[in-house]
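Incident log, entry 3
Record: Nicotinate phosphoribosyltransferase (398 residues)
Problem: checksum mismatch between cached and fresh output.
Input:
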Amino acid sequence: MIINSLLDTDLYKFTMMQCVLHQFPGAQVEYKFKCRNEGTDLQAVLPEIREEIENLCTLQFKPEELEYLSKLRFIKSDFVDFLELFRLNKARIEAYPAAGSKTDIEIRIKGPWLHTIMFEIPVLAIVGECYYQKFYPVPDLEEGRRRLAEKIQLIKDLPNGSPGLTISEYGTRRRFSKAWQLEVIRTLREQLGNKFVGTSNVYFAMTEGLTPLGTMAHEYLQACQALGPRLRDSQTYAFEMWAKEYRGDLGIALSDVFGMKAFLSDFDMYFCKLFDGARHDSGDPYIWGEKIIEHYRRNRCDPRTKSLIFSDMLDIPKVISLYNRFHNKINLGFGIGTNLVNDLGYSALQNVIKLVRCNGQPVAKLSDSPSKSMCEDESYLKYLREVFELDECQEAKA
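Fresh output:
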């Protein structure tokens, strides 16, 4: 089995799931898979993907896993009790050849949000590893180790140790394999010491004694487009419900569901003071950082008390460049995914699973990088652009 633990996923799946349990237990959702690499032959591994999904749906949380979760300061006891009974239902997910294509596949996930939210990350890991197992059955691990060593050396060579520059591993969904991800994590921990601060993967955080990292993902803010009182206030509503659930903990806000302009409009003085910082996941990171810092200043917040988390397609040279630009202005964090756990010399798959409907209503992500946007309803997109006064260039790709 590629996935043999339900902890083998990102922390923000648990933090969002707990919020769903307490705030939105009746929400119904639909997710859609998309491979951004044109012409990738995933139909060749569709039988293996289906078999691995069936295996995934047999898993339950083990007592030691529940005990680990219960010790995380923000996890509540009733949520752990719920997880003790939790299983993924294979009736909620379908994987099949895409119509009119000899290579593409469709994956659809439908059902109660509370019972489907855990599919995304392990299914993406399954699709990727099935593909790599078939087309690269004897991976060039030595090349991967050489590339990883070069990245580590770039950090070790930084002048005066560059205090405040730390990295974390965010790559479960895009990893080459689970075994390679583990080797990368262990190498980073051994070679970088306190400059490697943790992983988004809860299983490896538990087994390797690391800090699990994460707060919210796009799907949370997307779902609030349907769950809130009105669309224009959906982002504000999402932040308010998050604060209701976590009371100031897990205070990193995601900024790019409607783009930067809409985020800054909604992220007012109250949220500037309440949340610890914001996460960048699309668009120009330098422009984004400067705008956020200026926004804090306008809202009477000292940026040096806040944090910026960068997580969009990072590599070590970009991390160093961003650190040099911002380190004396604000606290920084860097989450690196694909470039750490899927850099063996092969083209990495850019697979995503995104929320497309909630309670029967279309929802959308309108990213600051249009190629990362996603929606299936053109009329809803038009309405969304009008409501948030968005530029026409921010069109989502179905």
